[in-house]
Design goal:
The complex is a heterodimer. Chain A is an alpha/beta fold. Chain A has two domains: 9-292, Spore Coat Polysaccharide Biosynthesis Protein SpsA, Chain A (Alpha-Beta Complex); 300-414, no CATH class. Chain A contains 17 helices and nine strands. In chain A, strands 1, 2, 3, 4, 5, 6, 7, 8 and 9 form a nine-stranded mixed β-sheet that branches. In chain A, strand 2, helix 3 and strand 3 form a beta-alpha-beta unit. Chain A starts with 8 loop residues before the first helix and ends with a helix. Helices cover 87% and strands 0% of the residues of chain B. Chain B has nine helices and no strands. Chain B is elongated, with a radius of gyration of 30 Å. The chains are: A alpha/beta, B mainly alpha. The interface between A and B is medium-sized, with 45 and 25 residues.
Chain lengths: 422, 234
């Protein structure tokens, strides 16, 4: 059991005052004053509507906000959020906040929430992203019910998203996790999710917290822990996920937290994934993934330029990571004109598997391996965008399914590289 | 007269024989030391080569960029080079030990100086290797960062980082070896100053258009680009 030594005395005192709870809602924040008020309002409405008899608490783990975020969370009155005159809270709905550090760290934030859940003996817990502007009260129910009533251990979300949103998820994380671990979890890197107290306790005790390694990409680590630990997993459709505008420079940190975490987990999980073949569906509630098809302007020239520039400038780096045949193919497609440019699925999968094997063997610094993937990912994004520009939701789904099957088909290639000494 | 010559000759022969008899055991000891030294040096070389192969020293050397230099100079691998270097240092050490046994006054001082120099030589080799490793790491880090930030001429930037670090490393290595310290100090100052001045001129004058284009790309996005979304990866 986590001893909670890293929690502040004040926070522990507040937890003792709360006592045991049935439901815990975790809200990690950092300067989210713009959105957090409405999110807390929605969370409270969701709990009052779906779980009026249960003992519930909202735990805010704050990473040093300077815009009054914690005060907004703890200050919302229960009367402000009563959804209808006929709905009353039968229990006190607590909201407590703790500042875990002066700078945000998603790993420490989740550790704080998990420890609080363990100390409060919460049966079902959810974590909500403080940036979810499209959150609705039903999300709370959809994430909590499978854990609270159906004894699932992890509830992963599915969303209604634009077909070109989350391309790292659809082109790498989802197909690779599916091919290696044999479970079709759409959003392995989750921003909103539900989990049981059992899974929380196990993850808390097993994850490497003290060396700092276990803190990056914590959401993906939790999913992988559930997959390898034999926990019951389901998916729940939440609704529309808002489109977050990002800058080109955001890609490398994102790759570190997602692909880097996945590659590093493959080492410790080898016994689990090496024996798996094929993949199984996960029970899903509330409908399947939905894709929005609105036109979206994408700077294809910049994507191609960054790919071509990356392939030519990083040739010496790729020589250490990739096989000669893969590198030759990459150089060939880098020489193609924009209209002819295509990064085929089979080559993309081979690239990713060779990167994973190079990461395992540490052929160069591991962080450099992850950074070197960024220009290649841009090339794959360009191909996906061009191929699915006019595609229907079904076409896009078929394209992703084809990629997943390619990842499954080439899995023996990864195993072969993994087992070879050089 | 004849007797005197014979006596002197006999005396000389006796002195030579005495001298030879005096030095012969020392010479034998020197030869034994040289032979034993060769055996030990050879064994050290074999053991060291196995250890270096076990720890994949060649890969480390590749990362440092040392392997590429050796290949260009048609030299053996880094493992082989280091093994041979240690072999020769060990063997020469034993030979000089043997020479010391001969008791030749001038040579003894040279031998002492050689053994006093050995720690500096090892430190210099280590400094050079880790310097190259550091230069290789930071050059690659700069290259990756520049490529991912879409900075123009990332290769040039990486080369500049590597050169700056290597100039610094070489000056430290020569300082450790005690070779032409004053010259190296001046040379380092001139080389470093020239590099910085060159970079300043390159960026300030030669790269004016490039810098302008770069700043425009960074801060003045066109209307078309403003309308285009950066795709969210997650």
């Amino acid at each position: 059991m986590e001893d909670g030594n890293f929690l502040t005395d004040e926070f522990l005192r507040q937890l003792i005052n709360v006592g045991e709870v049935d439901i815990l809602v975790g809200l990690p924040t950092h300067n989210n004053a713009k959105t957090v008020g409405s999110i807390v309002h929605t969370i409270r409405t969701g709990i009052l509507s779906g779980f009026p008899r249960e003992r519930a608490v909202i735990i805010n783990a704050d990473g040093g906000s300077r815009d009054g975020t914690p005060e907004l969370i703890t200050g919302v009155s229960i009367d402000d959020v009563r959804p209808a005159p006929s709905v009353y809270a039968l229990r006190t709905l607590h909201a407590i906040s703790t500042k875990y550090a002066s700078t945000p760290n998603s790993g420490v934030a989740l550790r704080t929430i998990l420890t609080a859940a363990e100390l409060l003996r919460a049966k079902a817990c959810i974590v909500i992203s403080p940036e979810s502007e499209t959150i609705a009260p039903e999300w709370i129910s959809n994430l909590l019910r499978p854990v609270y009533y159906d004894s699932f251990d992890l509830v992963s979300p599915t969303y209604r998203r634009h077909k070109f949103d989350g391309l790292l998820m659809t082109n790498l994380i989802y197909p690779m996790v599916r091919a290696l671990y044999g479970i079709r979890v759409r959003e392995a890197y989750m921003s909103e999710f539900g989990f049981s107290g059992r899974l929380g306790c196990q993850f808390l005790s097993q994850n490497r917290w003290n060396d700092g390694i276990g803190e990056d990409g914590i959401e993906l680590r939790l999913t992988l822990a559930a997959l390898t630990g034999g926990f019951r997993i389901c998916q729940s459709f939440l609704g529309e996920k808002d489109h977050v505008e990002r800058r080109a420079t955001d890609l490398v940190p994102t790759l570190r937290q997602s692909v880097g975490v996945l590659f590093s987990a493959l080492d410790s999980d080898f016994n689990a994934w090496s024996k798996v073949s094929g993949s199984q569906e996960v029970p899903t509630t509330g409908g399947d993934v939905e894709l929005l098809l609105d036109p979206l302007r994408v700077n294809k020239k910049r994507l191609r330029d960054m790919f071509v520039n990356g392939v030519s400038e990083l040739n010496s780096v790729f020589q250490a990571i990739l096989s000669p045949s893969t590198l030759t193919d990459l150089n060939r497609i880098a020489g193609l004109e924009e209209e002819e440019f295509r990064y085929p699925a089979a080559l993309w999968v081979r690239t990713i598997y060779e990167f994973a094997a190079a990461y395992q063997k540490s052929v160069i610094n591991r962080d450099h391996i992850i950074q070197a993937l960024a220009p290649l990912f841009r090339g794959r994004v360009l191909t996906f965008v061009v191929e699915n520009r006019n595609g229907s939701a079904l076409d896009v789904a078929n394209d992703i399914e084809g990629l997943c099957l390619e990842f499954e088909r080439l899995k023996p290639y990864l195993l072969e590289m993994w087992k070879s000494k050089e | 007269m004849r007797e005197m010559i014979l006596s002197e000759l006999t005396q000389a022969m006796q002195d030579l024989a005495r001298g030879f008899a005096h030095y012969l055991p020392r010479l034998i000891v020197m030869l034994i030391l040289a032979f034993v030294g060769w055996l030990i040096a050879y064994m050290v070389k074999i053991v060291l080569r196995s250890i270096l192969r076990l720890i994949r020293f060649d890969r480390l050397s590749e990362n440092a960029g040392a392997s590429q230099l050796l290949t260009k100079a048609a030299l053996p691998s880094a493992t082989e080079m280091l093994s041979r270097f240690i072999f020769w240092v060990t063997w020469v050490g034993f030979i000089l030990l043997g020479v010391g046994v001969l008791g030749i006054l001038g040579l003894q001082q040279q031998v002492e100086r050689f053994f006093l120099f050995l720690p500096h030589l090892f430190a210099a080799v280590l400094l050079l290797f880790f310097g190259m490793l550091t230069a290789g790491f930071f050059a690659r880090a700069a290259l990756l960062a520049a490529v991912n930030a879409n900075v123009p001429s990332p290769g040039l930037l990486s080369l500049a980082v590597r050169s700056i670090i290597m100039v610094f490393v070489l000056s430290v290595v020569f300082e450790e070896l005690g070779l032409a310290q004053q010259t190296m100090l001046v040379a380092f100052g001139i080389a470093f100053g020239a590099l910085m001045l060159g970079l300043a001129i390159a960026f300030g004058i030669g790269g004016r258009d490039l810098a302008q284009r770069f700043l425009e790309e960074k801060f003045v996005r066109t209307k078309k680009e403003q309308d285009e979304d950066e795709l969210s990866p997650l």
